[in-house]
Amino acid sequence: MKSVNSCCVKQALAVAVMAACASLSAQAGEPGSVDKSVLAQVMALNGLDERGAIERLAAEEAAADLYRRVRTMSLPEYAGAWFDADSGKLHVALSDSAQAELLTRFGAVPVAVGWSLRELEDLRESIGADAALLQSGLLRSLHVDYVRNRLAVGAAPGRMEEVRTQLSRYADRIDIYEAMKTLVPSADVRGADGTRNYDFEQLPYGGGYYPCSVGAAVENGFYTVGHCGEAGHDIRWAATYASLGDVQVSAYPSRTDIDGDVGWVSLDSGWTPVPKINGYSDGGINVPAKWAGTNELPLYTHACRYGQTSGGPHCGKIIAKGQLTDWGFPKKVANVTVVEGSCSTGGDSGGTWLPASGSNQVQGTTIGRTEGNDCPNIIPPRKDSFTYFQPISDHVFAYSKHLTKPAGSLLTAHGTAAPTVTGFLCPDMMHSGSGTFICSLDPYSSQGKTDASWSGASFSLTADDFALGTCSAFDMISVTLTVTNPYGTYTATSSTFPCPMGPIP
């Protein structure tokens, strides 16, 4: 059997990405090391044999690490990215070719497009702010289609022509489709454990008390979705109805200063949040310290869901990101990730999403499903059956503004310590030359959000895990790296090196 590492090497991924692939091989390199239920679902979803499914998940994990790197570059010409199953590589859309060569160096495939992501997102926000369109019920959803470089507009059934007329001035940038299904919430201390809201009694679940699921444990509490409770609501443990704590901040439905369907619950004394996810048939799953446990999957990769009602894993493929959704509540829900298939049942809301690859990076919290997409899974899924989650980054961002650090920090296996960097390469000669140099670092371990900064040289581009600098012949260079999290700082300084002037490998 071909190893996962040789597969990744043949795909010519860059050094940093190959490191991710090598790391994954320890988890996915042999049949049986990926959860059997997850593997079976990935095989059925894609028509793959076992070896093919293992190799695909390894390539997806490598693409996720590269996707994080691309997003931290903050390129103005960036227009989205997706995993291409045929090549096993991450494709990156660019409205300008200035950084195409650099992305190629790192193993991505640049794709030239006409509109940047920022331009299409601005259009999404403009259309989404049109009260007449929303209040008339014409629109169901808006998201940027990265592959087509267009804004995808979901019209209510039978009203496509009305939408087309209303948005005719944007015809060069939009695609309109009929959203056939009605969206329903999955109304649904470890992630994916069950809860009850003792202040919501309108739904006939569990004795009349509103059931939901834990998303992920944070300092002194846990994340869940906002529609599971409003500030001050009494949240109970589903198993015994013992008091867990109170909703501290909820963005839904009354908050207008926080986007998305996000919420935070503080725990009463006697409860200890732990960096684990209830994997149900998968058992207890540790939240990794690598990238603070929140490394985001790209488009067209597989994710799996866990929640108190349907258990898990329930897996599907990510087909849209950043969707603005009319949820039928008092406000629209921003930045939703859409998964084809997976399924969800009442009480699963708030529950945890993880990569199918087994890296256990927390992806987000379940917010709902299309009507009829109840569990158990239908494989292959119907083309109109979707499940939705709020990215975990939205929770971290929202509550970093409203909570005193480190209250909102995601718990990981790293614990409350400064970040740990496992490798610092400067210069990275595999990607340096012709008067440019690249410094990079291997994945670092952390609890809570991390920030990296670079100093000591002339940089044209910096990101969390690499920096691109320019120099002239005979220059002697030294670079200092500083990585911080809510608990401390890691600092490293390179040896002094001459400006690389040879050809770029």
* Rg calculated over all Cα atoms: 23 Å
Low-confidence stretches: 1-32, 202-208
What distance separates the N and C termini?
31 Å
**How do the strands of the widest beta sheet line up side by side?**
9-8-12-13-14-11-10
Mean pLDDT: 83
Global geometry? globular
* CATH homology superfamily name of the largest domain: Trypsin-like serine proteases
CATH topology of the largest domain: Thrombin, subunit H
Structural class: alpha+beta
> Helix content range of the residues, please?
10-25%
Which CATH class of the largest domain applies here?
A: Mainly Beta
Q: Label the CATH architecture of the largest domain.
A: Beta Barrel
Number of strands: 33
Task: Walk me through this protein's architecture.
- The protein is an alpha+beta fold and 505 residues long.
- The chain folds into four domains: 4-112, no CATH class; 117-180, GMP Synthetase, Chain A, domain 3 (2-Layer Sandwich), CATH 3.30.300.50; 184-400, Trypsin-like serine proteases (Thrombin, subunit H, Beta Barrel), CATH 2.40.10; 420-498, Immunoglobulin-like (Sandwich), CATH 2.60.40.
- The strands form eight sheets. A seven-stranded antiparallel sheet has the order 9-8-12-13-14-11-10, with no helix packed on it.
- It is globular, with a radius of gyration of 23 Å.
- Residues 1-32 and 202-208 have low confidence and may be disordered.
